[in-house]
Amino acid sequence: MEAAFVYGTAYQFVLTTEIALLESIGSEDIERAHLYFFHCNLISDLTQQCRRTLMRQPLTTLNIHAFVKTMKAPLLTEVAEDPQQVSTVHLQLGLPLVFIVSQKATYEADRRTAEWVAWRLLGKAGVLLLLRLTSWMTVTLQISNIKHLFPFRKRDSLEVNIPQHTNVVFRRAEKEVPLEFLVLTDIDSIISYVEDNVEMEENKDSDVEDPDLDIQDDEVAETVYRDRKRQLPLEVTMELTEETFHATVMASDSIVLFYAGWQAVSMAFLQSYIDVAVKLKGTSTMLLTRINCADWSGVCTKQNVTEFPAVKMYKKGENPVSYAGMLGTEDLLKFIQLNRISCPVSITSIQEVEEYLNGELYEDLVTYSSVSVLGLFSPAMTTAKEDFTEAGNYLKGCVLTGIYSEEDVWILANKHAATLPALLLAKHKDGKIESIPLAGTPAQDIVQIITNALQETFPEITVENLPTYFKPQKPLLILFSDGSINPQHREAILTLVAQKHLDSFTPCWLNLKNTPVGRGILQVYFGLLPPLPLLVLVNQHSGGHVFAFPSDQSITEQNLALWLKKLEAGLENHITILSAQEWKPPLPAYNFLSMMDAATSQHATGKAPGRMKEIDVQENDKERHEDKLTVKKEPVETLRIKHWNRNNWFKETEKSLKPHTEL
Amino acid sequence: MGLSAALWGPLGLLLSLALPPAVGAHTHRDYCVLGAGPAGLQVAAFLHHAGRDYEVFERTPAPGSFFMRYPRHRKLISINKRYTGKNNAEFNLRHDWNSLLSHDPRLVFRHYSRAYFPDAGDMVRYLRDFADRLGLHVRYNTNIVHVTLKKDWQAWNSHYFILTNQKGQVYQCSVLLVATGLSVPNLVDFPGSEYAEGYESVSVDPEDFVGQNVLILGRGNSAFETAENILGVTNFIHMLSRSRVRLSWATHYVGDLRAINNGLLDTYQLKSLDGLLESDLRDLAIVKDAKGKFHITLGFFLEETNASRSADAIPLPQDDNDNFAMRVAYDRVIRCLGWKFDFSIFNQSLRLSSGSEFSKKYPLIRASYESKGTRGLFILGTASHSVDYRKSAGGFIHGFRYTVRAVHRLLEHRHHGIPWPCTEHPTTQLTNSIIRRVNEASGLYQMFGVLADVILLKENATAFEYLEEFPMQMLAQLETLTGRTAKHGLFIINMEYGKNFSGPDKDVFFHDRSVGHTEDAWQSNFLHPVIYYYRHLPTEQEVRFRPAHWPLPRPTAIHHIVEDFLTDWTAPVGHILPLRRFLENCLDTDLRSFYAESCFLFTLTRQKLPPFCQQGYLRKQGLVYTKSLQQHGVESGLLRDYATMGQVLEDSSRQPGDQEPVNQPLGTGHLIHLDSNKEEL
């Protein structure tokens, strides 16, 4: 009705609900409202049918206005100037222009084609006949593959070069976008090209404008949600309440999982926790319990638990110990198992010491602790013992520690060539026993010695252990292998380690069989999954350069040493640089402030637009444009809405905040 | 909360004049509390727990003397909800309007009464137990009859409060906490007002009203409570008040007329003789006729007829206007006009004045509950209601128990250097902290618009401090009041009703009253959490000149968590996801959680890690998925099954800005993704 009011003098507006009439017009979908423009002024005889154009856009006032305007515009315009300089109503309405390139010789035929195209594209694009005049057609470019669409960027010259074979020039409504010079064989391909491009823009439009904010993009939240209907065997763990908590943890050694029923990370971990309970069922003296802090928040706060999930171990007569390992079955199981014995455990005979060191004493625990640690003290060394005990306590659940301090300790000292007090480190993998003197070493340093001993020189890197090896901030030298590692390769690297060539690196290897995500890593490095094994140097901490050891060379000590030298000298080219991109919000948020503004300022028409990103746009305009990666190509419509919003914002700010201004 | 303080007052004053205290013979206390009602005991409990030097002075021999007499008909209208279906004690306090806050789980009101609307006697019993169990220092039978100031530059506030009791004993206090409630019945002065019986003394025996015509002045809960009691035996009850009745379910203010007392509204609207009238009481006059019946007339009629008070001679409105509504004679007139604060004991030097026209019955105080006139003088409890009169619950136990705690926290910082308690968390816990509080916090829920949680961001927004229940009107002074710094931006968590939802004349049952879609959350009408984000702490000017109807100055960004029928804001997509997006966009970071495998991938393929990986995985606390969770992840397209990843790969590293992180086709993995798409459709 608004349109009829505005254009009523120029056009006749007719409203019909007559189905028969609609069918005779040939409406495809009479369920929906349609707008047709009948070009009746072109005919003189009423028996003739008027040509008609269907409006394809949704029926909004703005669209109708644009549509009527394009109907009013000349069907075909002839130009002989630079297509970039031409301006018609179409551009103002955000519609593209199609230039049919014509020459004197073919002018008549071209004109007919152009008119035909113009009718077909009426309301979608402006059509112009571009006369190719020799005067400005100075240079023709050599284009090797003329059949392909060739985007041609116009630089700051007044001369425009139209490639020789071009017959159609396409100009988008957006400024800055270069002209497209096309070679199209028939009218249909012109039409479909234009329609494709226009439609594509519309689609993009809606994509950018309406990313669905309500689609979960948090992998933990989504997986937990999808799994919500699966029944977990929760009964394998004991559920605690405010009433039962104290009685339970006082009565027996217990592990308590503090979680919140509404929190996804908690609930993901609860699954692993239940798995642990199932695995330990009937074998452990440790009681596995859980308490839902969404119900019993008072208990959790009193236990100093303010973040979920949290695991604590309560043992009689001891302070509760917080579990600080990975939130997964394996690490938690290890923690619980190693805590079955005290830490450090007292060993009372030489015989037992032998069994302890070769892993027989705690056979079932050795799988959880690659190293057995034993402190040797003569009975009088009380402070040294205390320090060691403190260190052992600290390492609870990480490693097996034992203490021996009988009168006959000198036998062991002699056997292992140790000066008391001493530390014996039995590595079960290679059966080696190392001794380290402990005289005057404070507990903290003992912890450090043991933690270092737990680290391997050439470890297999896994999801679980990467943080340990990543901590020293050295570049990682990773050998990717599909399956176990070639012993020769291992030898080569170990030799280099022994020769101190790799001191500034953390050498490691990755088994794709155990750590399939390695494929994802290789994909980022190489794009394609390269042949394995493959050696890669990753320097996350300075610059993010990734270097690959040439795949045509065999991984030998010499080749490696040479490659590393070249690397050091800067003679090697990196294969990729790790993205330094910051972790920005994955999607905008609802901008309630602008919605509220829109509502109060009475400008709101229907759904109030607004996304939080606009705040950023205002404030970081410059920054954003500099950083090309973050600048999304925004279609005109979105930008327009944004400007509208922004104006609105400022207006509203002025109005409602007279005493002071924000921003 | 002593009602007869007014009676005791003059007598005490006489005594103190008769026996002037010996100079210097006084007891010093850091904190003196006037009144052992709920507010007095509540602040005493906090002071006691903190080990402060304090004393409570109570006029009567036991705590809670107000409740020994009031409400006259003994039924409390504060709900005692014993079952909520939830175990969370903090949450349950949302629906327990009678308990005070303490660390003793036995001191919860539901152990004292089974009634939903409990008997006032149970409250007396509860308060006595509260004082006894916690061993609070209360000096009973001590009526403070005079309070004055003594300048002393060494005092905490450069002056001491000098309290004199009825025996002339003197106490010197560094801080004075006044919790005397509203103890003086409101009187309206009009000719014949002396004929009206007061709520405080009127008979509560319905037998005394049989076959009578009763006029009640007032339209508050005490008026309706009185009416309710005699509704069945009177001829009719007329209720007269200056303004229209305000129903608490329409205004969302618990001080307005509660549904439990509104039987008279029912009979009025159904034309059963009872009725409601509006008129300014000050224009009225009551005339007693020879038979002892009362007639209503207008004040200026009396002025015209000089002082000759012969009832029959006085003109009545019905003389001119023969259908005047109140032309019948009444047997009784009952005044139920509420109470006001007793200002009489405070010396002028304290400059304790009454509030504006609107809240005349309350002393004037700041949003920090400190008197505007005197530093170190705090008003607690019912008398502090001017801060949120007709808005929130600050005048009632279930509201002021929290404001009292806030005052105590302010004092702990001001005088003992203990900053406002807070917990510190990494940014990854931001969403969790908010969700947890909006789902269980009772102080936010009851004291909506008054107390708000504050999140102070640390530098670079890697961590934050969480402060609970800060008086939000004092936001500009947050740093000096709490001892915390707010240099790097802050969030305020408040609970709000819809802006135009509540009001005495609003229809709160209209068709589209509730909102379900997250994008319409800002239009939520029922109480829902609102989060304000400020880059900088607002200034005093900004707080004072905030836009109309806004509880706080205009923020940089705002988020409404959509109202929830069950007030359970834990829906992953409906509540948590939009909140996370809001927080992410305020902090310009990615607050998603990731499994250890994803973090592993990021660690080796990117220079920067999302906070969740940085604060969890890299500290060896990564989250490992189980088989079934991984499967769901692959199906949803959020995780990739690397084990089945093929040889032909395209470059499709996951970008944080990607909308569909891993949905790009890749080799044999392609098939899986097609499958998953199908499932999603």
From TrEMBL, chain A:
It holds the Pfam family TXNDC16_2nd. InterPro entries: Thioredoxin-like_sf, Thioredoxin_domain, TXNDC16, TXNDC16_2nd, TXNDC16_3rd. It comes from the Eukaryota. Residues 1-74 form the TXNDC16 second thioredoxin-like domain. Residues 75-143, 154-188 form the TXNDC16 third thioredoxin-like domain. CDD domains: PDI_a_family. Gene3D superfamilies: Glutaredoxin. Residues 237-337 form the Thioredoxin domain. This is Thioredoxin domain-containing protein 16 isoform X4. It comes from Heterocephalus glaber.
Automatic annotation (TrEMBL), chain B:
The keyword Glycoprotein applies. Residues 650-681 are annotated as: Disordered. Keywords: Endoplasmic reticulum, FAD, Flavoprotein, Glycoprotein, Oxidoreductase, Signal. SUPFAM superfamilies: FAD/NAD(P)-binding domain (SSF51905). Its cofactor is FAD. Residues 672-681 have a biased composition (Basic and acidic residues). Residues 1-25 form the signal peptide. Pfam families: Pyr_redox_3. Probable flavoprotein which may function in endoplasmic reticulum associated degradation (ERAD). May bind non-native proteins in the endoplasmic reticulum and target them to the ubiquitination machinery for subsequent degradation. Belongs to the FOXRED2 family. This is FAD-dependent oxidoreductase domain-containing protein 2. It comes from Heterocephalus glaber (Naked mole rat). The gene is Foxred2.
